[in-house]
Amino acid sequence: MSKAVVTDEKLPDLPPPSNTVGPVHWVKENLLSSPGNIALTIFAAWLIYMLVPGTLDWTIISAVWAGGADACRANPEAACWPFVWTKWEQFIYGFYPAESRWRVDFAMLLLVVGIAYLMIEKTPGKRYMGLFMLVIYPIIAWILLYGSVFGLEEVKTNKWGGFSLTLVIALTGIVFSLPIGVVLALGRRSNMPAIRSICVVFIEFWRGVPLISVLFMSSVMLPLFLPEGVSFNDLLRALIGVALFSAAYMAEVVRGGLQAIPKGQYEGADSLGLSYWQKMRLIILPQALKIVIPGIVNTFIGLFKDTTLVLIIGLLDLLGTVQAGIADPNWSIKSVPYTGYAFTALVFFICCYGMSLYSRKIEEKLHTGHKR
Amino acid sequence: MTTPNVADQPAKASMLYDPRVRSMAYQGLALIAIIWFGYFIWDNATTNMENRGIKTGFDFLWNRAGFDIIQTPVEYTQDSSYGRSFLVGLINTLIVAGLGVIVATILGFVIGVARLSNNYVIRKLATVYIEIFRNIPLLLQIFFWYHAVLKPLPSPRSLYEKGEVIAFGINNRGAYLPEPIFGDYSFLILLGLIAAFLGSYFLGKWAKKRQEMTGMPFPVFLCSFGMIIGLPFIGWLMAMVLASESAPLTFSYAEMAGFQLKGGLPIIPELVALLIALAVYTAAFIAEIVRAGIQSVSHGQTEAAHALGIRNGVTLRLVIIPQALRVIIPPLTSQYLNLTKNSSLATAIAYPDLVSVFAGTALNQTGQAVEIISLTMAVYLLVSLTTSVFMNWYNSKMSLVER
């Protein structure tokens, strides 16, 4: 009886007990673990049954996909997508002249390329590209959209509208709010009492009032504040309001980053004899801004959604053009308002959800650095 | 042993490099710039207003307003003053913000907890809710509820017969609820309610003290619940006995009279739409805050409580929730503030809130932009700053409890 009972090799793992794996166990654990849980599952199933088939049917299966207003009038109980197809150009360009729309397309293309370049990991020279997008691109975009130089025909801002106007407002907001926000945040952390109070008052003022009142202020009060003979057009006034408003929010985000940097970094920079601006530019801000990228993206998402408010002071952004389209008597069909709102919601959802996914990804990537 | 003390020697650097001098100079420059800017604006504003013949000052607040408001919680007619319309707008804002905060909190807590449920489907549904509603602009949601849900509802004429009595109903003229009518001695009901709240407060204090002294728990929640239901009921009974002729509390229901509903407590569709949109939108944010708060309490706390033999419910109530609340309350307050500020979107569907009535109609009629916009902003600022002060107090109180 010399059977070896000791092995020098690792025995293969036994499979886990059959009642702890597999779909059956998963269902038991996740859906039916207790009477309360079973009730919840039934409730959820009922909710899904109530919502999903109806929505799918309305938006896709019985929806009108082709034809014109008459096709929709024949079937008013389902989505009317021809409404979107017909008004498509208005939704994107507003009243921008048709022969110059390539300029809007080109500006948007540049934007998409630039952002894609910044988002893809490990592309070289990201820093310069970022600076380009923040400083040079807005100038190029303005020249393209407004024209009146380089032989481009002038297109007045009251012709702008639709999704491109939404983008213009949101991007102006971010481009101006970032530098102003950084300065305000530094001011709020400064140890000079006068500078600090000015920044605190500025930030708290803009954060304390609703954007609507800021827009009202910039549309009715701003003209009074300017010297005689100087006047801003409607869009520019709204842009100033949006930029100052979002700068205050950005300042608080950046301040969070400044506070998160360990004190040793500040002291280390001081002990090297760096001046205040050198310290901030070379040591503190690169670290602080990196931490708050998710916060900046979240602020931007908020700003992007808030651009819809400009329709209250009479600018036609995406939601404004959709509202105008719904009011069109040729399309006074029961399903049209729902379709219009569903389309707008979808556009905003894709943009905002995409940005929030990106910010979450960055957050995860940054988080690993702090894990010990 | 006589190394000269460096600090005793006078600084040799030029004044230009003295940080104190520099900082004074920067601050002086900043102040001068601000004052100059303020003067510039003030000067321009006064010349411009003079040129355009705009009156200044707050005298207009006592002038006749001359416009109607569709929801007047305090007495208001066309003959009331602009100041009165300001008050009506302010109260309407507070109504929608107050109701919105309550509904959003309940909805947000339910969804936030659902997001952490161990039921897969519930968890996913809560996630879908949050992602959909916080990624769609609030204004769009308000339009949706108003133009696409409430306005296409059938009219009362097509819904009800003549003379029909409706307790709860919703149609394109708004929602209808029964209106409570307080008769003689109805103050006893209120008295009972106040007594119940005071009683619950002191009972809670007493029970906490007793538990700390003796370790014996007291069913505070059940007792308070009983008191809050019971004492007003006793008050009602007493009022019934005292006021033998008329009932102390009756309800008036809406009744179909001719082509429209009369009586009851009508709630205008603008308020319903705004309330639903604000609550649904803010609840998505509150749900995320609640989830983050609960997750911030480490699992070790639950395990330790279980190891001490504390039951699940008690663990939740005494261990998890107090710690989670410390994380939840600051961002929750800022969501409440956001809701209040967002209620100004009312102006898009003409719900008569402060911005819509005062910075809208009153501004168009008087043209006194500077005064009206400043007053409106001051109201919102006041609310925000008061809340911040309260929050700072709360934070410092809570952080004392920490190690």
In short, what is this structure?
With 372 residues, chain A is mostly helical. Chain A contains 15 helices and no strands. The mean pLDDT of chain A is 82.
Task: Explain what the structure shows.
Chain A has helices spanning 22-30, 35-61, 69-74, 81-93, 101-119, 126-146, 162-188, 193-208, 211-225, 234-260, 263-271, 276-291, 293-306, 318-327, 335-370. By secondary structure, chain A is an all-alpha fold. Chain A has a single domain, classed as MetI-like fold (Orthogonal Bundle). In chain A, helix 8 (193-208) crosses helix 10 and helix 13 (293-306) runs antiparallel to helix 15. Chain A is globular, with a radius of gyration of 28 Å. The two termini of chain A are 54 Å apart. Chain B is mainly alpha-helical and 403 residues long. Chain B has a domain at 64-152 and 268-354 and 387-403: MetI-like (MetI-like fold, Orthogonal Bundle), CATH 1.10.3720.10. In chain B, the strands form three sheets. Chain B has a three-stranded antiparallel sheet with strand order 1-6-7, with no helix packed on it. Chain B has a three-stranded antiparallel sheet with strand order 2-3-8, covered by helices on one side.
What's the layout of helices and strands?
The complex is a heterodimer of chains A (372) and B (403).
Chain A: H1 22-30, H2 35-61, H3 69-74, H4 81-93, H5 101-119, H6 126-146, H7 162-188, H8 193-208, H9 211-225, H10 234-260, H11 263-271, H12 276-291, H13 293-306, H14 318-327, H15 335-370
Helix pairs in contact in A: 4-7, 4-14, 5-6, 7-8, 7-10, 7-14, 8-10, 9-10, 10-12, 10-13, 11-12, 13-15, 14-15
Chain B: H1 19-52, H2 82-114, H3 120-134, H4 138-150, H5 156-159, E1 165-166, E2 169-171, E3 174-177, E4 179-182, H6 187-214, H7 220-242, E5 249-252, E6 254-257, E7 260-262, E8 265-267, H8 269-296, H9 299-307, H10 312-342, H11 354-366, H12 369-401
Antiparallel strand pairs in B: 1-6, 2-3, 3-8, 4-5, 6-7
Helix pairs in contact in B: 2-8, 2-11, 3-8, 4-8, 6-7, 8-10, 9-10, 10-12, 11-12
